[in-house]
Design a protein that fits this description.
alpha+beta; 6-stranded antiparallel β-sheet; 5-stranded mixed β-sheet
Length: 144
């Protein structure tokens, strides 16, 4: 009887291990699929300024000086809540949300503007460039 209990415990443990492995594989595949879909939605873009890269990881991104901003620019020339970045079908749009100094794209004052790769966004004294995400693995391959 005791041998049967040990056998039952061993079989149960093996079944749990198999279930855990299946869940891990399924979640990895789901994350991989989600990442591919997000790259398509976001056009795989990022904001860059001197020494900083801001990953654009959701469909609405608040930019401002306030601590609750998604992209925080701690500069007095930037309003607490300065601009909103949104994306739809791979097209990013920036909208001024009542800033004091305005939002400029490539030197032109805008209220709302669809963005293109390499557009320069000026918020107060800060200049950010929208660009394709740089993949470090691809960069390493190019350098070899």
């Amino acid at each position: 009887m005791e041998d049967m209990n040990l056998l039952f415990c061993a079989v149960s443990a093996a079944a749990l291990d198999i279930c855990a492995l299946v869940l891990i594989i399924a979640s990895y595949r789901e994350r991989s699929t989600g990442n591919k879909q997000w790259k398509k939605i976001s056009a795989d873009m990022e904001l860059v300024e001197q020494g900083f890269t801001y990953h654009l990881g959701c469909d609405e991104i608040l930019i401002g000086r306030h601590a609750s901003a998604d992209i925080r620019l701690p500069d007095i020339s930037v309003s607490r809540y300065h601009a909103m970045l949104t994306v739809a079908d791979g097209v990013w749009t920036i909208t001024d949300i009542g800033s004091k100094s305005g939002v400029y794209v490539n030197g032109n004052l805008v209220k709302s503007k669809k963005l293109c790769e390499n557009d320069v966004i000026t918020l107060g004294n800060r200049k950010l460039t929208l660009r394709k995400t740089v993949n470090p693995k691809k960069e390493r391959r190019k350098n070899k």
